[in-house]
Amino acid sequence: MRALLEGFCSALSSASKLRVTAVGVGHYHTLLDAIEKGDVDVAWLPPILASLASARGKVIPIALPVRNGFCCYSTALFTRTESTLHSPRDLLNCRAAWVDKQSAAGYLIIRSHLKSLGIDLGRAFGSEQFLGSHSAVARAVMAGDADVGATFVYLDPKSLGSTGHITPVSAGWGSARVRILAHAGPIPSDVIAVSARMTPAIRTQLQRMLVYGQSAVVRQAASALFGAEGFQAPMAEHLRPLTSLLAGLESTVEEPVSTSPRARH
What we know:
This protein is an alpha+beta fold. It is built from ten helices and twelve strands. Helix 1 (about 1-15) packs antiparallel against helix 9 and helix 3 (about 45-55) packs across helix 10.
């Protein structure tokens, strides 16, 4: 990863004529502090932190990595097809399986969505277990060790605007047959953002290199680093639903973080 980051910084420096160096930090809150102090100019952020930092005016998203044709996913609360649960209103003293307390798709966002629907989470879930992975959540639900679980789901964009059933393309439950009780999104998989201190000219220059391919070398190095087939410019609809759901969310994000590039002119 470090070698890929150095390669990206080198390509970005050569193409932009800026001095770009890699900066390593231990936690996301440390990264936000570095951005606010002006020590970091470009950061690779998870969706919740990017949304919160953007809403607070600390960063401006410039690119969303695209993988397997998607730059965003959704979160879903699901159960077995033979379950007596058919909607969020049926949730009462249920056994819930979550990924972990910092998981966007596997805990945070679906709970925030349920609260926005007026669901009393204390009454809805009688017991909760944190299993550490999306596959473990799916296994627990399908084995009957949990009544409901939360995981990621990639939805067919054509079904999102319809009033009928949504169509999952892929999800954390794999090929298992499940019933989706609720879903929320879109959630960007991750976000490349720049400090709000960055000048509009440099911000636009960096975005054009990543999103519009104005520098093939930068685009290639970025694709290798982020594991992406391309990049999409963030639109309001990519972040607004997540920002809205996070408005009342009380959570401290302290996940490990890799290094981030720093650009200086």
